[in-house]
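Q&A log
Question type: sequence-to-structure
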Amino acid sequence: MNNNPLSTLAHYLTPSHNPAYLAALRIAEAAVSGRRAAALADWLVFGNNPARVVSAIADQVMMPADSARVDVYEALGALRGLLDP
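Response status: OK
Response body:
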């Protein structure tokens, strides 16, 4: 698996203009790049709950039917690990 969980997930994410999804992506991008503190407004959307951030991203994943499914689950788990305090 790639060291950047968003790179792995990018292949399977469906486009969305949902504000919560976009906020989740901004939070995830900040965590992946090492900037733990994403915008407070983005975190408020999720009540400072990392599981809800990952869930918003997971809702946009078009899950592969092949062995890549494991990579997607690992990427979501890695992302959760980056977001947990």
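Response note: The helical segments are 5-10, 19-32, 40-45, 50-58, 68-83.
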